[in-house]
Amino acid sequence: MGKHPLNLALRFLLEITALLVYAFWGWKQAEGWQGLLLAAALPVIFATIWGIFAVKDDPSRSGKTAVPTRGFIRLCIEIVFFGLAILALFDLTLKIPGIVFSILVVIHYAFSLDKINWLLKH
Are 26 and 41 in contact (CB under 8 A)? Predict the structure, then answer.
């Protein structure tokens, strides 16, 4: 089920949304150039971490990786990535979007049990 096109589309939307949340949260943390710097830097930092730490031979990522990572560590990175985005929404007092985002993340992982099992075995 994790490879179903609808689940993959949901995951892509969740990833992009999380990066946008990081940018918005960063922008709201400071005024002026510091807010702009955070708004630009946070998504880049999170996207870099997301992109370079991967499990070698992961079929969902072309099998290539810059930093070979154990599956359990990759799963932890994903949980932190989405979890911090959820916390940022609540910190921004965006309760309803935070709840909706949380539910969508849970739905995505509920349909990705095959991927979770694969990660935990590698």
Answer: yes
Structure tokens at 82: 């989405």
Chain Cα centroid distance, residue 8:
13
pLDDT tens, position by position, 43-61: 999 999 999 999 988 877 7
Name, in order, each residue with C-beta under 8 angstroms of 45's C-beta and a sequence gap of 6 or more.
none
Which residue type, as a one-letter code, is found at position 44?
A: V
Backbone angles phi, psi at 68, to 5 degrees: -60, 130
pTM tops 0.85: yes
Nearest to 67 by CA among 49, 85, 84: 49
Contact of 50 with 76, CB cutoff 8 Å: no
**Is 63's pLDDT higher than 80?**
no
The Cα 68–Cα 108 span in angstroms is: 24
Residue 85 near residue 21 (C-beta atoms within 8 A): yes
CA gap 22, 44 in Å, rounded: 9
User: What's the start-to-end Cα distance of the chain, in Å?
Assistant: 19
